[in-house]
Amino acid sequence: MKCISCGNELPEGTTSCPFCGNTVLPTNHTVVNEPPQPNNGVPVTPDAPVLPQDQNLVEPNNVVTPENGVNPMGANNNVAVSNGQNAPTGPENIMGAVDQGTMGESMAQVPTPPMPDMPVASSEPQTISNQGEFGDGVKIASTAAPVIESKKNKKVIIIILVILAIVAIAAGIGVYYYMSQYKSADKRIDAVFSGMNKFAAGLKAEKIESKSGTYDIGVSFSYGDTSIDGKVDGKYAYDLEKRIMDYTLNISKLDMKADGEELKLIDKDPLKLELYTAEAKAYVLLENFYENYIYSDIAEYDKLFDGIEQNDINYTVILQGYINAFKTGLKAASNTQTVKEVTLDGKTQKANVVTIVLNKNNKKIIIEKTVNSIKNNTKLLEEFAKLSNTTVDELKKNIEEATKDMEFSDESATLEIITNIKGSALLGIRVFDDEATLELAQVVNGYKLSFNQDKKDVFSLTYTSTSTTNSTAKETSQKIEFTCYDDDNKLMKANLEINVKDDINPKVEKINTKNSVSAANISAEDQQKIMTNIYNFGNLGLLIQSSFGSLMDMTNSYESAMNPYGTTTPQGGTGSVQTPLGLSSTIN
Q1: In this structure, is residue 28 part of a structural domain?
Q2: In 306-391, which ranges are E strands?
Q3: I want to staple 392 with a disulfide (CB 3.0 to 4.6 A). Which of 150, 381, 476, 507 is the partner?
Q4: DSSP string across 450-467
């Protein structure tokens, strides 16, 4: 047999190796005669020892423990065999497990080449074994495995430290987020103006030379028993470089109601009008009454367009400057903050509320900080100076004069800035005292402003806006709804809806005005023709006729007073006209 430590042939009955001094294990098992197994592809011979890693070693059932001497790894070399004891599993078992009782004492006779001494990393025994028909595994006092385990332990410690660091950072971020999002009143105040700043940022100072599109407007008004309902549509186009503007207006609906009577003023075709300007002239076309354009000269026509074409002014800077100035003033005032149930526009929800008491001190702070912010905003003053046609120094002087003697009353009100719990979105603003409440609430696509006094609704104003864009046009819809109660609690309502469709590629065309007529030179025959067509234009014509007749009566009375010796009756005589809604007049 050979020494398991150095691989040299040992004499029969030898208990220690004469070459390396290693103790030879006593054997209690019979070696199973099996053909030599390959050593990584190399046949096993007496001169080619079998290495443990070449034997498909797995976890042993019979454990070998170190006792005395020096083993091949540089630790104590005495080894004892313990049959039937299960070896530990896990990273410390470097080769795995084998079936119990298959190797026996033959394992002690497996030749193993000498290995250089290595530092001992652990005193725990390690197991090397083979799998298959060979027997029990062998434990040695030290292998490379403990070193690997030590590195793994260090890696585990590092990973744990990294995880703890990440948790700590996350916790810190969470605390900061809570403090900044839930506890900072400045965040709530920023939310008030975020939408305004987005709107201001959308105002472009770029030069718009031409534009065209269509529009339609619906309007209604009612007060008590009187109401008006109308609808207008048309086209628009302008080219600022060519000094051309063209607007058409079609009144398709105009209904009136008064004293229980209803009247449709547009009971025939729509009333069509057009205004066209070009070459320092304004042209008007009354399509229902006269076939030709009637024109008049416009003084200082180019200056009119120069005023329209002030596109070098950065309106975004102006608007954002004022917004941020007022925001600075609000942030400077003392405040309190809480989370509570709030009712806005009839809807109750939990919200974050910043409360600023508008006492004398806070009002002074807000105004002073706002004014100073404006005065120190050079870009704002420069742009506003261009808009107001003045200088920056003059603006500063005017601001100082307007605010130097400003006094603040002792009367107090309360301002509430209401946002969602996170403070990322404005829900509403409320200003109130013991008698009145002014409330701005967010609604779908807009806002609602309402005022209540002595627990009674005084007025409300709702504004909403939507827009969409496709390959041919940009469509914008805006709605305004207004309600108001007078001292007698009589309700007044007004609604306005404007829909505009802007062409992506504007179309501005010149109008043929070849047969146009000067307003100063229109013939009497054409004037009479126009008036006759107006009078015959259904119910609207009758209303215009009655109004014109009343005007003529007033003119005749004035002329009679100025000429007591005689009057001249206009051609056509006199007559009485009864008009709708109880209107009557005398037409000369």
Answers
A1: yes
A2: 336-344, 347-358
A3: 381
A4: EEEETTEEEEEEEEEEEE
